[in-house]
Sequence to fold (444 residues):
Amino acid sequence: MSPSSSPQVDKSQIERIVRAAVEREAVVDMHTHLYPPTFGTTLAGKSGKSDPSGMLLWGIDELLTYHYLVAEVYRVVPAHKLPYEQFWKMSKRQQADHIWKNLFIERAPISEACRGVLTTIQKLGLDPSDPTPDGWRKWFDQQDPSDYIDRVMKVSNVKSITMTNAVFDDNERERWNSNLRVGSDPRFTAVLRIDPLLRDWPTAAKKLSSWGYAADEKLGASSIESAKKFLRDWLDKMKAVYIAVSLPPEFRYPADPNDAIARAGQAVLEQVILPVCAERNLPFAMMIGSKLRVNPQLRDGGDMVGKADVQSVVGLCRAFSGNRFFCTMLARENQHELCVAARKFGNLMVFGCWWFVNNPSLIEEITRMRIELLGTSFIPQHSDARVLDQLIYKWEHSRQIIAKVLIDKFGEMAGTGRTPSQQQMEETVRLMLGGNFENFLKGS
Ligand code: FIX
Ligand code: ZN
Fold:
């Protein structure tokens, strides 16, 4: 029976049905920076094995030293009071204590990143009103990392975690090269992330050559073949479900003819990446608008946003109508135009409220606009979690907002005299929390 033919419900039931469906629907999180314990973990917990360059970050000290909070603490204790190099010399625990003292005790922890730590602690059954993180630390030390992943996925109701596997990152690449099974944890799926290939071809070509994929700056036919083989080999190693890139606000398609690096990037896009995606029936994800290291001393916290060019995305969707594109943009100012672009191209799937627009006021604004313009054909959120436990707060906070907007929208539908059926509302939630992502991966 099609969803619209099942019995309709009255408006008072809409809230109950939507809240229950949003709570119950397990999420497929399409973009995170999370990894299974096979990638090494900075906190041993019960496993007893910690790896200082481990890629699985979890526990209260990682939560408190999230780069969002490093940036925020430097607003209240500026660098002339605590020089950056002094902060970076501190232990993780010392950094966490500094952030706890200044953002949670001496000031009200009401920013989204601060609130997120408290929501996570609360949902784990710990007491957010504890005066220090010390009791929480003891609790985390008793957790086994792999069991804890199951626990966090259960509490956050996330059924699949999509990684970001940056093949040009030495730590990441060497872990794959030393043990191909590193990515075999069924709770995680891989994504081949290739920023340097697009953003700095000359440097990338030298690295490809050193890895046995002979390529040169001129990007002749043999270099193109090498680069395609490089992508195919890593797609196979990782069993990656899509290829991704993060691009600066200055990204343009077609590229500025006077910018050799940008022109090389365009050639890589047109002659390497998109043909390989098409032959493998894989989407290409573009995350556009991050200006890297505007304050390098904040390290990962030093990136910021810039207004990007949506017409470049339009140009790609039109020129490569056989390819599928995920796209999210970092600037609030780009959201409406990107939404309208998605109305024009079925091969464009808009996703998430990324990074600096991943805040309740903007998630609500953007989700309302997307439903009004795109109906149910978009992906409202991804977590972008860098610390495993963040799945709990990022999805708790977003579920509340997605439910609130859907209740309003289904209520407005009912106001026309055509009330949504329970199945229609539940199907919409299923599409938004994972179905649209999985369907777009398959091209269905
Ligand atoms: O490029 C990206 O994947 C960004 O999401 C990250 O670099 C960024 O640091 C982040 O985690 C934002 O939430
Ligand atoms: Zn990210």
The longest helix spans residues 390-414. The mean pLDDT is 97. Residues 81 and 350 are 42 Å apart (CA to CA).
